[in-house]
Amino acid sequence: MNEAIMDYVKGYCKDIQSLFIEIRELIIKSVPCEIEEKLWAKLPSYYVGEKFVRIIPFKDHINIEAYTISKYKSQLEQYKITPKGMLQIYLNQDIPHTVLKEVFIETLMR
Questions:
Q1: HSE of 63 in the Cβ direction (CA atoms, 13 Å)?
Q2: CA 51 distance to own-chain centroid
Q3: What are the C-alpha distances in Å from 34 to residues 14, 26, 27, 85, 99?
């Protein structure tokens, strides 16, 4: 993990850190090419060229920013999608691995 991102995530509780790492690993495993990992405006971001996904940790949940999330809204009904189109995953929720993998592939590869 990028050192700046690691330092950033260490500021959150262990549960948020674990959730963050699991989502990060899903992003990396979802696409066959190299992903550039960096902080953009102090937000952990994952780039393939100009396309990106952001994982934004909060005290009790994580927001995922990816431009294709709204396309999968019907498959993510048990999760909140913010007015800006970000998916919120709370600590008491399971990660929707299958749907997120599709979101990450479509966002970063197409």
A1: 15
A2: 13
A3: 27, 13, 11, 25, 21
In this structure, the number of other CB atoms found within 10 A of the CB of residue 110 comes to: 7
Look at residues 48, 44, 77 and name the one whose alpha carbon lies nearest to residue 63.
44
- What's the CA gap between 51 and 35, in Å, rounded? 10
Q: Using a pLDDT cut of 90, give the percent of the chain over it.
A: 97
Please name every residue paired with 51 in a beta bridge, in sequence order, or none if there are none: 48
Token pair recorded at residue 96: 């929707």
Listed in sequence order, the DSSP H helices in 1-110 are: 3-9, 14-30, 97-109
- Whole-model pTM: value is 0.94
User: What average pLDDT score do residues 88-107 get?
Assistant: 98
Ramachandran sector of residue 19 (left: φ over 0; alpha: ψ -120 to 50; beta: rest): alpha
Alpha carbon distance 110, 49 (integer Å): 11
Q: Which domains does the chain have, with CATH numbers?
A: 3-109 (3.90.1150.200)
